């Protein structure tokens, strides 16, 4: 894809002004790192507050007579029971129980359901929702809004100076509020494992909000490189790598996204397959791996102790926090227990790898305020 064909976010010039190295991502020109580099950006987010531009993601309002119940026709979550001020992680499923995309959906106010989906998938996601729920919901794509993520142990203190109501939120809560002198939708969650927020603001206000946050010495800009290493340490999947339309939420270790009510009702796409998998009838299971030697990247083969290939790495790299390589991948359930000794094939050579629990680095979400 040529640079001329790439889309840009409202913060594109701000990234260039900050010395960002830009790369193609999800059809957009996005910053992979700034002047400090990936390692320093990663560590800064863990110790202070990192600011991310995630405006490439798809934001939308789903409205209708009963948008919450309608949304249950394409997801396995309990959205009828979703209370005002709450948001939920879920997955958009195909008819075979495979994941079309993972997403966040919440009720920041009384205006239907506010949904955020992955940037590379958003056109297809909204088409699927529109096709499946035609006549029940209308979709307003919020193309005129930007999305920023402020992550790290200092994020709450920083944001409270510009959006006092944000301090009232706990993990997976959301609210429409005035922030930075404009109308914003703020949620408290994050893709780094750290406490943090996602801040949706009008696109016309994005640069002002971005610069206001960066004027605080506790905040530095962070690119896609550190975003990926942070989410890997947090054990969180990346769509198109750890998740795709062949992978079910149970295989991916996302069984929490299938609510008990929906499990009992079996009234979602692919319910028959997922019900079997919940009883243990799995062909593969996502695991975390501690890797010895060089990092095992996506596509590296995983072998058992005898050298037989049994799976594949879906995400992998060096963990700056832990000081050694880590990876996510799929293996047969019999080899998924913590402590299982395996091998990863890196540049044709087998290296030791051990199944370990995820997250690799403990989450620090604030569940109660």
Sequence of secondary-structure elements: HEEHEEHEEEHEEHEEEHEHHHEEEEEE
- What's the main sheet like? 6 strands, mixed
Care to count the β-strands? 19
Low-confidence stretches: none
Strand content: 25-35%
**How would you sum up the global shape?**
globular
What does this structure look like?
The structure is a single chain. Helices cover 19% and strands 33% of the residues. The chain has 369 residues and is an alpha+beta fold. The strands form 4 sheets. A 6-stranded mixed β-sheet has the order 10-11-12-9-3-13. Strands 14-17-16-15-18-19 form a 6-stranded antiparallel beta barrel. Strand 16 and strand 17 (324-331) form a beta hairpin. Helix 2 packs across helix 7 (224-233).
């Amino acid at each position: 894809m040529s640079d001329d064909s790439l889309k840009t976010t409202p913060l594109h010039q701000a990234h260039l002004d900050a010395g960002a190295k830009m790369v193609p991502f999800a059809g957009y020109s996005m910053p992979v790192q700034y002047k400090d580099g990936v390692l320093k950006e990663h560590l800064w987010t863990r110790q202070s507050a990192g600011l991310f531009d995630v405006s490439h993601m798809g934001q939308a309002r789903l409205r209708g007579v009963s948008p919450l119940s309608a949304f249950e026709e394409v997801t396995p979550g309990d959205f009828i029971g979703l209370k005002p001020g709450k948001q939920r992680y879920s997955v958009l499923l195909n008819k075979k129980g495979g994941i079309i995309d993972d997403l966040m959906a919440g009720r920041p106010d009384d205006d239907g359901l506010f949904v955020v989906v992955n940037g590379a998938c958003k056109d297809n996601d909204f088409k699927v929702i529109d096709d499946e729920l035609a006549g029940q919901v209308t979709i307003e794509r919020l193309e005129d809004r930007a999305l920023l993520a402020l992550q790290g142990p200092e994020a709450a203190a920083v944001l409270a100076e510009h959006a006092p109501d944000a301090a009232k939120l706990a993990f997976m809560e959301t609210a429409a509020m005035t922030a930075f002198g404009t109308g914003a939708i703020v949620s408290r969650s994050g893709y780094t494992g750290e406490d943090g927020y996602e801040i949706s603001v009008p696109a016309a206000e994005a640069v002002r909000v971005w610069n206001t946050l960066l004027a605080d010495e506790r905040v530095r800009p962070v690119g896609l490189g550190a975003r990926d290493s942070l989410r890997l340490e947090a054990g969180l999947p990346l769509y198109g790598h750890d998740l795709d339309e062949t992978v079910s939420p149970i295989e991916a270790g996302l069984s929490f996204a299938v609510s008990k009510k929906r499990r009992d009702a079996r009234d979602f796409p692919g319910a028959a397959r997922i019900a079997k998998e919940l009883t243990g009838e799995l062909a593969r299971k996502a695991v975390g791996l501690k890797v010895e030697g060089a990092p095992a990247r996506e596509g590296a083969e995983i072998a058992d102790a005898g050298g037989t290939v049994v799976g594949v790495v879906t995400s992998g790299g060096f963990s700056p926090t832990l000081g050694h390589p880590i990876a996510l991948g799929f293996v047969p359930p019999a080899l998924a227990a913590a402590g299982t000794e395996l091998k990863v094939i890196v540049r044709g050579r087998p290296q030791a790898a051990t199944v370990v629990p995820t997250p690799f680095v403990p989450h620090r979400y604030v569940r109660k305020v």
